[in-house]
């Protein structure tokens, strides 16, 4: 998919305004659908979000970023809390928040070796240093995703 051409198409069809800058994929984005850069007016989009959601949902993410872009061009309130932004986003049916892809949760699952208390964690923990808060027994790593 030619991302810049797709964004231009969405801009023409849904806003009636031209998108004159560049749209690029940014694989470093984790939980956000995209970003707008006022300095050079380009848009970044998360390729993982494109793969995780359907095309209509991705189009709503593009609309969200285009709201920032067009309002900034018109010297109107382009930030999330601004009334102009919220009104335009509602008018074009853009997403207010990026959808969850299911990868933001716990990656490590620890459990107590004695009582079975479960401890989901995003980060790895030192099993020599930490123990169960309920019975003080050692923890074990159950699974890692």
TrEMBL record:
It comes from Streptococcus caprae. It comes from the Bacteria. It holds the Pfam family Zn_ribbon_SprT. NCBIfam families: PRK04351.1 (NF003339). This is SprT family protein. Transmembrane segments: none annotated. Residues 1-142 form the SprT-like domain.
